[in-house]
Write a structure and sequence with these properties.
Chains A, B: Pfam families: LacI (PF00356), Peripla_BP_3 (PF13377). Chains A, B: It comes from Marivita lacus. Chains A, B: This is LacI family transcriptional regulator. The structure is a homodimer. With about 325 residues, chain A is of the alpha/beta class. Chain A folds into 3 domains: about 45 residues, no CATH class; about 130 residues, 3-Layer(aba) Sandwich (Rossmann fold); about 130 residues, Rossmann fold, CATH 3.40.50.2300. In chain A, helix 5 links the parallel strand 1 and strand 2. In chain A, helix 1 crosses helix 3, helix 8 packs parallel to helix 9 and helix 10 packs across helix 11. The longest helix of chain A is centred in the C-terminal third of the chain and has 17 residues. The model of chain A has no long low-confidence stretch (mean pLDDT about 90). At the A-B interface, helix 4, helix 5, strand 2, helix 6 and helix 11 of A face helix 4, helix 5, strand 2, helix 6 and helix 11 of B. Strand 2 of chain A pairs antiparallel with strand 2 of chain B, so a sheet runs across the interface. Chain A binds a DNA duplex (30 and 30 nucleotides) through helix 2 and helix 4.
DNA sequence: CGTGGATTTGCATAGGTGTGCAAAATCAGG
DNA sequence: CCTGATTTTGCACACCTATGCAAATCCACG
């Protein structure tokens, strides 16, 4: 393995100083003449600036740390893929961390520490919370953090979510308009803002319409829990279920049809949340609230890059509205296409 | 933002030299006494070694570059999650790159270049090929490459796949034993080794059993293509379909049931490949050949780490066998549970 | 206590780049 | 051609750690 070619080599060949080479490649001022000479020499030698050395001195790595909890829910791979792509376009790269099963605070701590070690320029937490102590540490290190698809009131952290309360409300309206009077709710994890907000919006709107849920069970965004919740609610005779995300909704539908022998939407209407690609598959054909992933990702990247480039920028809280996508898993009210 | 605390600061406080600090943190020899003093001082100051400076001098970044083409197929998020976890356990981190839609050679080139720029210690290509020129460049840079779930004959690259030929053969045996005599095949992309191998094993075994496929259509690992292929094969009156991967199989099943009104497995048996988690969902209940992701990932990591730590290590080609998982989407032969 | 060997320690330098500062070069205008 | 303003260039140093080498320290044994 031959030694790396450095800026000195290029400088020697081009007949200029090392600083000149550096300036050409970091976009600082340089005359046309030297710039040409340098580029030509670099080309000939196959020179590429050493990213590590550059990061060491500038203190900016152009790497984004991304923590993602659970890729089993297809919403996140989709988001991850988009993140990676958008960051690449912005000239950043994505260092991915996954949280172990029992996501303890110690684990988050260790991961954040490793990110700081790598001097990431920014952090995206997808569906992961951040303790105040850690948030403070990132703040102190001057590393901006954006929460994706999770809010954290009073944390002062930037966050991007969909309009979860509104989404929950839309489902309430839709189900009531569809004539349902025994509505149950397999809630998203109530320890997360998304779960709580969807539930709150849903319950509040139901109340405004003079209804009350027959039952609310926390499905914890988990397959097995969702099935358990379904059993409880079916026992109470529901005729419609609002499920906290699509991932659980699939489990719920499978259980309703296969284990309980119920027809969808004949016996029970089911509505989900996310509009994951799979929701459109014929086997589920799930009516669901769309989370506009593309726009959410773009907003997250924009907020992060903004904070990176302008340290004084404020941490924004962004909510993006998404439509209810009508499919076949829930009875459609008269008068709607 | 306060200046970073360096090894000099720690040295001063502990009353030793900077090299002593370095040695303590890089695990070199140091007496108990100094080691204790250094650790204490480091703790008090909140010192952490600067990874960038370390990488710059050692030439090892402890970062693995990972290229993944398409996270829409749930096989890959699953693998990615495991990779990230296993690498973390080994003290490496994962820099993720995604390939744009029309994965041209130029794109791969650019991505590899960026990885080399970041001086990754190794590269995993998940379901992505590598031109000879690029392979040579990695070789020259001393960066080992392992292909995951893709082979490339004659490339001299390390690769980990499942036993695809054998898997295809198993399906052939299973379908014939089930009494099917009009078997069709929605093949995996014939431009990939996995697609070709599965097809070859399948076709060869069929021939040995005195049968021939009613038709073979390349589904290109794509939903729409798989549906098109299904139409073609159904028109030829198939009573069983071997589909190149689960991702396509779901599309095929949806199309068979919803659009064509056929019963599975009553009218048509369907067998997939991968055993993605979703294959076990009641809505599909897909009989499929399991790719043992866990073992494949571990083998890939082991091969890579081995090559990183011992530059003279040979590039191994690993094939891991996986069982046929019997579920309800295909008629089960007499005498099998 | 003396001596040889093993271990530990400090010095100094390398790794490759960005950047402040002053000197040099360029340019415009009279 | 001269002068002052502006741009370009080179020098030297900073960024922070790892490591070869020689000096120093330690240990055990006679």
């Amino acid at each position: 393995m031959t030694r790396r070619v450095t800026s000195f080599d290029v400088a020697a060949r081009a007949g200029v100083s090392q600083s000149a080479v550096s300036r050409v490649f970091s976009g600082a001022s340089a005359s046309k003449a030297t710039s040409d000479k340098v580029r030509e020499a670099a080309e000939a030698l196959g020179y590429r600036p050493n990213v590590l050395a550059r990061s060491l001195i500038t203190g900016r790595s152009r790497i984004i740390g991304m923590v993602v909890a659970y890729l089993g829910n297809p919403f996140y791979p989709d988001a991850l893929e988009r993140f990676s792509r958008v960051f690449q376009d912005e000239g950043y790269h994505t260092l991915v961390f996954t949280l172990p099963e029992g996501a303890g605070d110690t684990d988050t701590d260790r991961i954040i520490q490793q990110m700081l070690d790598h001097q990431v320029d920014g952090i995206v937490l997808a569906s992961v919370g951040l303790g105040d102590a850690l948030a403070a540490r990132c703040e102190a290190a001057g590393i901006p953090v954006v929460l994706f698809n999770r809010g954290q009131a009073g944390s002062g952290l930037a966050q991007v979510t969909s309009a979860n309360r509104l989404g929950g409300a839309k489902v309430a309206e839709f189900l009531v308009a569809g004539g349902h009077r025994r509505i149950g709710h397999v809630a998203g994890w109530q320890g997360s803002s998304t779960g709580r907000d969807r539930t709150e919006g849903f319950v509040a709107r139901l109340a405004e319409l003079g209804q009350e849920a027959v039952g609310i069970e926390d499905g914890r965004y988990d397959h097995a829990e969702a099935v358990r919740a379904t059993d409880v609610l079916v026992a109470r005779g529901v005729d419609a279920l609002f499920v906290g995300n699509d991932h659980m909704a699939f489990a719920v539908m499978d259980h309703l049809r296969s284990a309980l022998g119920l027809k969808i939407p004949g016996d029970v209407s089911v509505v989900g949340y996310d509009d994951v690609p799979m929701a459109g598959f014929a086997a589920y054909d799930l009516t669901t609230v769309r989370q506009p992933v593309g726009r959410m990702v773009k907003a997250t990247v924009a907020a992060l890059v903004n904070q990176i480039e302008d340290k004084s920028a404020q941490a924004e809280v962004t909510e993006i509205d998404g439509p209810l996508i009508l499919r076949g898993s829930a009875r459609i009210p008269e008068g709607l296409a």
